[in-house]
TrEMBL record:
<feature type="transmembrane region" description="Helical">
    <location>
        <begin position="25"/>
        <end position="47"/>
    </location>
</feature>
<feature type="transmembrane region" description="Helical">
    <location>
        <begin position="195"/>
        <end position="226"/>
    </location>
</feature>
<dbReference type="InterPro" id="IPR001452">
    <property type="entry name" value="SH3_domain"/>
</dbReference>
<keyword id="KW-0472">Membrane</keyword>
<keyword id="KW-0812">Transmembrane</keyword>
<dbReference type="GO" id="GO:0019706">
    <property type="term" value="F:protein-cysteine S-palmitoyltransferase activity"/>
</dbReference>
<dbReference type="GO" id="GO:0016020">
    <property type="term" value="C:membrane"/>
</dbReference>
<dbReference type="InterPro" id="IPR001594">
    <property type="entry name" value="Palmitoyltrfase_DHHC"/>
</dbReference>
<dbReference type="GO" id="GO:0005783">
    <property type="term" value="C:endoplasmic reticulum"/>
</dbReference>
<keyword id="KW-0012">Acyltransferase</keyword>
<dbReference type="GO" id="GO:0140439">
    <property type="term" value="F:protein-cysteine S-stearoyltransferase activity"/>
</dbReference>
<dbReference type="GO" id="GO:0006612">
    <property type="term" value="P:protein targeting to membrane"/>
</dbReference>
<dbReference type="GO" id="GO:0005794">
    <property type="term" value="C:Golgi apparatus"/>
</dbReference>
<protein>
    <recommendedName>
        <fullName>Palmitoyltransferase</fullName>
        <ecNumber>2.3.1.225</ecNumber>
    </recommendedName>
</protein>
<keyword id="KW-0808">Transferase</keyword>
<keyword id="KW-1133">Transmembrane helix</keyword>
<comment type="similarity">
    <text>Belongs to the DHHC palmitoyltransferase family.</text>
</comment>
Length: 413
């Protein structure tokens, strides 16, 4: 009994903290509003106890809600799977092909990346999703993608119910004049009387829920198509970016080499089965992966090491000439800086006049880089990186001669 209580106290309750975040709060609120209003309006439009169609409609509506919540909570609480702390490759000589994570005190397994939000190396990391307050990766990629599919389908069904309810409830209450449209929201002309009165408040709530349903259908539907596109190529969002940077690196230095993505099985169906299985358990163990013929087990990690070395070469050293508080949208740094703040959860870093920073990529009014710290900082926390306004820094004289542009900016030749 004591062991059971300790499991509840230290594991389950710890995971429940994920709900205390703006992402899950908004997502679950949208699901609750659309589902509740759809059920209420179904009673008005298509009373489920009178006809078979009404019963099927109501059951399907409940079914959408259950499946959406099931996959949502699976994606949130099952999580992506993390690389074991202190992990090393089976053969010690293979460590030369891998990056080492100082935070996790382990080598980064192929396809894994360190997430600053989760503070762990995530297996087959796709991205950190604020809506589930967790990473999308190896273990929960299928659940997350199914949620992205089911949410728009459920919202389309709910939107149809909202439209039909408003139409049937207002059909006998509209009177058209020459210049105005008068709406009688009373139920006096309705025969028989509705089970639930459809007044002005119900009309406003239905209209609001319709807006949420349509917005969710468009936004989440687009995310689903993006996810399916990369799944059918057996990639993640990060790996798609790595592949683009590989092409840029080869073109930038005009190298006689071709980067071949090693995990594409050459068939969309085979790629699909790497994520979606009948058992619900994804293929592999999250540490080793099947590769296409002619590729090396560490082809991707070798390319990452090349890009990391290239980033150091192409980075630019800046000196801070003006203090910056680390605000997301600083008002005192100019209107253009305020309105062009990067739309990302990546951090901003505080700057003090006289500090130095190494910029690795940038936008027109913002730069991203690592603060150059002295040796007084302890190992493991000595790397501070994030976004900062361009007008707070100036390029160091030693780097002006090279005229290198931070990664992410096109170099004109």
């Amino acid at each position: 009994m004591g062991t059971f209580c300790s499991v509840i106290k230290f594991e389950n309750l710890q995971e429940l903290k994920r709900l205390c975040h703006w992402g899950p709060i908004i997502a679950l609120s949208v699901i609750a509003i659309c589902s509740t209003m759809a059920m209420i309006d179904s009673v008005l439009w298509y009373w489920p106890l009178h006809t078979t169609g009404g019963s099927v409609n109501f059951i399907m509506l409940i079914n959408w809600t259950v499946m959406i919540l099931y996959n949502y909570f699976n994606a949130m609480f099952v999580g992506p799977g993390f690389v074991p702390l202190g992990w090393k490759p089976e053969h010690s000589q293979d460590s030369m092909y891998l990056q080492y994570c100082k935070v996790c005190q382990a080598y980064k397994a192929p396809r894994s990346h360190h997430c600053r939000k989760c503070n762990r190396c995530v297996m087959k990391m796709d991205h950190h999703c604020p809506w589930i307050n967790n990473c999308c990766g190896y273990q929960n990629h299928a659940s997350f993608t199914l949620f992205l599919l089911l949410a728009p389908l459920g919202c389309i069904h709910a939107a149809f119910i909202f439209v039909m309810t408003m139409y049937t409830q207002l059909y006998n209450r509209l009177s058209f004049g020459w210049n105005t449209v008068k709406i009688d929201m009373s139920a006096a002309r309705r025969d028989p009387l509705p089970v639930i009165p459809f007044g002005l408040a119900a009309f406003a709530a239905t209209l609001f829920a319709l807006g949420l349903a349509l917005g969710t259908t468009i936004a989440v539907g687009m995310l689903f198509f993006i996810q399916m596109k990369i799944i059918l190529r057996n990639k993640t969002s990060i790996e798609s970016w790595i592949e683009e940077k590989a092409k840029d690196r080869i073109q930038y230095y005009q190298l006689d080499e071709v980067f071949v993505f090693p995990y594409d099985m050459g068939s969309r169906w085979k790629n699909f089965k790497q994520v979606f299985t009948w058992s619900g358990v994804p293929e592999g163990d999250g540490l080793e992966w099947p590769i296409r013929e002619g590729c090396h087990q560490y082809s991707l990690t070798i390319e990452q090491l090349k890009q990391k070395a290239d980033k150091r070469v192409r980075s630019v050293r800046y000196k801070v000439i003006e203090d910056y508080s680390g605000a997301c949208c600083p008002l005192n740094k100019g209107i253009k800086t305020f309105f062009t703040s990067p739309c990302t959860e990546e951090p901003r870093i505080r700057l003090r006049k006289g500090e130095f920073i190494l910029a690795t990529r940038g936008l027109r009014y913002w730069l991203y880089g690592d603060k150059i710290l002295d040796d007084s900082f302890i190992e493991g926390v000595s790397r501070i990186r994030g976004w900062f306004p361009r007008n707070c820094v100036e390029k160091c004289p030693c780097d002006t001669e090279t005229d290198q542009a931070p990664e992410g900016e096109k170099k004109t030749r």
